[in-house]
Design goal:
The protein is α+β, with helices and mostly antiparallel strands. The chain has one domain: Glutaredoxin. Strands 2-1-3-4 form a four-stranded mixed β-sheet, covered by helices on one side. Strand 3 and strand 4 form a beta hairpin. Helix 1 runs parallel beside helix 3. The longest helix is centred in the first third of the chain and has 17 residues.
Amino acid sequence: MLLLTRSGCHLCVDAEAVVRSACEDLGVQWRSVDVDSDETLRARFTDHVPVTFVDQRLLSYWFVDDGVLRGTLTTQAPRDMPADWIPSLVDQP
């Protein structure tokens, strides 16, 4: 589970709380990456944070729905996400 955030983003703070709670409850590893730490991320997602990915697939922009996140985390067979994976322009439609 990957959460793209930005410093000073109030939606990101809210999204992180939802992600942290769901992932702790379900025993799912997650990490957060500042979209401004990488030029490719900033170019692709600057207007969309927070952005969530589960199993290297885009789940949501701007808001994280707790029910959708938990459902996704429990119904899909989880794939290993490399610790250094970040979405690239090639990964997105």
